Amino acid sequence: MTKPDILQVGPYPDWDQVPLDETFNMHKYFEASDPAGFLNAVGATVKGIATRGELGANRAMIEACPNLEVISVYGVGFDAVDLQACRERGIRVTNTPDVLTNDVADLGVAMMLVQSRGMIGAEAWVRDGSWQEKGLYPLQSRVWGKTAGVLGLGRIGFEVAKRLAGFDLKIAYSDVSAKDYARDWSFVSDPVELARKSDFLFVTLAASAETRHIVNKDVIEAVGPQGMIINISRASNIDEEALLEALESNRLGSAALDVFEGEPALNPRFLELNNVLLQPHHASGTFETRKAMGKLVRDNLKAHFAGQDLLTPVL
Ligand SMILES: NC(=O)c1ccc[n+]([C@@H]2O[C@H](COP(=O)([O-])OP(=O)(O)OC[C@H]3O[C@@H](n4cnc5c(N)ncnc54)[C@H](O)[C@@H]3O)[C@@H](O)[C@H]2O)c1
Ligand SMILES: O=C(O)[C@H](O)CO
């Protein structure tokens, strides 16, 4: 049987690349010196796209592949895929939900703990001799007993909240509606009101045009000078300019961020701040989870080309 032609938008680890190359005819877009020319040359043969959540597939890429049938996303967030362009052409889309949920929640909670207790600075205090020269490390803020707001109580938001409850935090959350599975936690529909109640505001929303900058100046200032915002979702959910201004003026106490506008480049103003913890979009970055994500990407492609039901369809 001829191998289906797949456009591969970004690199994968070897344990995914090897089986992909065995099963499909992979066209490595990310290695092309002239990406537009490459797309022009291979586009007509392409039946599937394998991409990553943050890379997606835009309308131009989709239109350059007139025989495209399926897009398989390595990631749960599919906001970078032009779903409208896919709907217009009957193109199926899959993602990798559930397998990454716990690791993303773990990292979000770890970011809050590390930042609250000043652990990055404390590590430097030991290594640079400050402990011996200056003595005790400056006191930090307590976590337990405070209130965490979870903006977006989906799969990841729920696991974040569950973990925080285990740390004896009080939980409030916001979403499009109250959730049956969250009866012990208070639902607050207005994000500004949620932020006002929160010492820690976790942003765990699926990103869309509706959620763009949902965390705006008002929400940020409602979290306030003693509060912290933790973003493990997408940069677009926060007005980054307003966030930077609030951090620079201490109208927001601190932030812990795994995602940035224009990443992996980030606004250099972040690097000047000592009240922000910066992470390189690696919330799902464990061997175990990434292997499960890669398998799901392949299994969805295989299912499609075998005429079987998709395992985790978005469209
Ligand atoms: N940092 C990372 O490495 C990383 C890893 C995985 C996922 N993510 C991001 O996390 C997101 C959430 O993943 P998930 O599996 O929990 O998704 P999910 O679909 O289970 O949860 C998203 C939640 O957002 C809510 N929501 C959507 N629009 C809303 C709105 N306008 N107002 C209020 N709530 C709204 C939904 O109702 C849902 O409960 C992903 O879409 C992805 O962008 C980031
Ligand atoms: O959405 C996801 O799963 C991650 O952010 C990777 O894109």
From TrEMBL:
Q: What class of enzyme is it?
A: oxidoreductase
Q: Which InterPro entries match?
A: D-isomer_2-hydroxyacid_DH, D-isomer_2_OHA_DH_cat_dom, D-isomer_DH_NAD-bd, NAD(P)-bd_dom_sf
Q: Name one GO cellular component term.
A: cytosol
Q: Is Protease a UniProt keyword of this protein?
A: no
Q: What is its EC number?
A: 1.1.1.29
Q: Which residues form the D-isomer specific 2-hydroxyacid dehydrogenase NAD-binding domain?
A: 109-283
Q: Is Transit peptide tagged as a keyword?
A: no
Domain (D-isomer specific 2-hydroxyacid dehydrogenase catalytic): give its ranges.
46-314
Which domain of life does this protein belong to? Bacteria
Q: Which UniProt keywords apply?
A: NAD, NADP, Oxidoreductase
Xref: CDD domains: HPPR
Q: Which Pfam families did the record assign? A: 2-Hacid_dh (PF00389), 2-Hacid_dh_C (PF02826)
Molecular function terms in GO for this entry?
glyoxylate reductase (NADPH) activity; hydroxypyruvate reductase (NADH) activity; NAD binding
Name the family the entry cites. Belongs to the D-isomer specific 2-hydroxyacid dehydrogenase family.
This chain's protein is named: Glycerate dehydrogenase
Which organism's genome codes for this protein? Roseibium album
List the lineage, top down.
Bacteria, Pseudomonadati, Pseudomonadota, Alphaproteobacteria, Hyphomicrobiales
